[in-house]
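Worked example (supplementary).
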Amino acid sequence: MAQSTIGIATRSRTPTRLGIVTAISFLVMVILPFVVGEFQVSLLSKLLLFGALAISLDLVWGFTGILSFAHGVFFTLGGYAMAYYLKLNLSAENNTYGGSLPDFMVWNGLTELPWFIAPLKYFPIAAIAMVLIPAAFAFLIGWFIFRSKVSGVYITIITLAISSALTTFFISQQAYTGGTNGITDVSKLSIFGINIPPNGLYWIILLFTTFVLVGSWWLTQSNFGLILRSIKENENRISYLGYDVASFKIFIWTLSAGIAGIAGGLFVPLNRFISPVYLAVAFGTQVVIWVAIGGRGTLIGPLVAAILLGQIQNSAERVTQDWQLVVGVLLLIVVLFIPDGLVGTVQKLFMKKQQPASTKQPVIDHN
Amino acid sequence: MYAHLFSFFYLAQEAVAEETTQAFSLVALSNQLVNGIGIVGILLLTGLGLAITFGVMRIINLAHGEFIMLGAYVTFWMQSTFGMDLLLTIPFSFLITGAIGALVELTIIRRLYGRPLETLLATWGLSIVLQGVIKLIFTAQLKYVKSPPYISGNLTLLKDAQGSPAIAISYYRLFIIFVAIALLVLTGYLLNKTDLGRQVRAVTQNRDMARCLGVNTSLIDMLTFAYGCGLAGVAGTVISSLKSVSPPMGQDYLVDAWMTVVTGGVDKLIGVLAGAFLIGESSSGIAYLLNDPTARVIVLAAVIILIRYKPEGLFTIQKRG
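After joint prediction of all chains, the assembly is encoded as:
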């Protein structure tokens, strides 16, 4: 049982501390809406979702070594599922043409709801579609590319092509997707007739992100996570040991797309629209940048980076219009000089401090 | 409120749709295919630089589109300040983008050899930075470059009954393919027939051995990367007058250039030509039968399938692992 001993060996004091820190931050986040204004609540909700999206990318990139620019695509697919639900549940007087058909479909000459969109009118179906469509799409891609000799860099190029192709496709199918504008002016979120206020949405999102973080942490600490990490370190060796590498990759890839899909679905009632902007490579890049800056394989890092960068961007955009330039420079610096990312570097510093202190002189105590 | 605006688009779209849904005609298809040559030219031009940086050096350069953009801006800048002709700016755009490429190799790429994913990330960061810097200098406004007045008009290959051209291609498109093929031949010559090219190939085949034999490998690395970037700059100059020049313009060409290179395979330069021809002609053919976006989606899907089964490209010789 070599595996379980390794599993135990990595369980140091750090996770307990991390758990405490996470719990405290969670509580702080829970009461935050009572302290900060409406705008900040909505911004934080958005950033938490971006954080969850970044964590989902970290699962495949930081742990399994698959760099994907297509996570924006999974996010947006979930988003569209939810957007159809919200759009179809607009009350007739709020709809531009009074009827039940969404405005963009009327403009594009559709007279009735397409059969593949109609079921999304019901919340349970929309909620399932929000996870299932991105996950199924990811499964197909994963099944197709991971069972081949295609190596890391080519997979990344494939994800670029997927993102580019889908953007073109969604823009071209105006009658069904709303074209470049996407699906706009959606209704507020109500589940089974209960309206969800902004704070409620915030708490749902906070719960979801916490769940994703804790779940991902649990998954990566398990033996399963160990295999994932070994795939990243040495794919050949782990396959010689008898593990079916492709299945592991497909599983984590699909799971990660499902998480991204839910994040996208929750994003729509907040953002009030979804459009091909989120499908495009630029948004996919944004996700990659959060993970790179936060620290690959740290899980908490991408979340922190998404929230921090989002907050900085929010204040910086009042001063400068060249925020993207700053992000680009940051990315370059991180890749060249801080490959572990912000959180990864901090963790390493702590470990370095801890180890000599515990092995050599336990006398020094900073309490 | 916006409904009127959109209904206008809707009508306009319908008009276009009527125009394109004519009966299938061989003449129109051949016209489309002849004009596909123009796309082939652009793909070849934009892919050629990548064939050097990726094909020869194995560098995943996602900032390739930005070097194209830089070339276009060099031309815009020289044209607007010195009133220079587009053709005359080609050498300058080659030298300036090449020099920037050399600088990038020295400061960024060099630190990341042998780590393809990190290189990919770094060049992506670089692409954002270059766009940002150009936006700071030239603003985000669209710029326009004048094409040379003596390369204008269309070459008519076939006239219809009324005497108006049925199959025609603009001279500028012919000019693009001419430049592209000239550069391809020149690159092939440099790589295969000159001393420098021999050193480049020696470094890519066996770096340590090349160094032992007295080749200055780091200089060769820098020169090769700079040459690839210079080619991208020339592509930018030639393309600049087709559409407007703007900071994000390179992104449009990046994915296509990659697809071209990956399709053709990078072992032989001729693979780029084959890739450009396949992608260019099939997209214009499918675009005629269906429509532009569908053609793009189909071609991209085909390339993805191709990468899955033949990641080394269509036109490569089987080598022993």
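Two points are worth noting when inspecting this output. The radius of gyration of chain A is 22 Å. Chain A touches chain B through 48 residues (CB under 8 Å).
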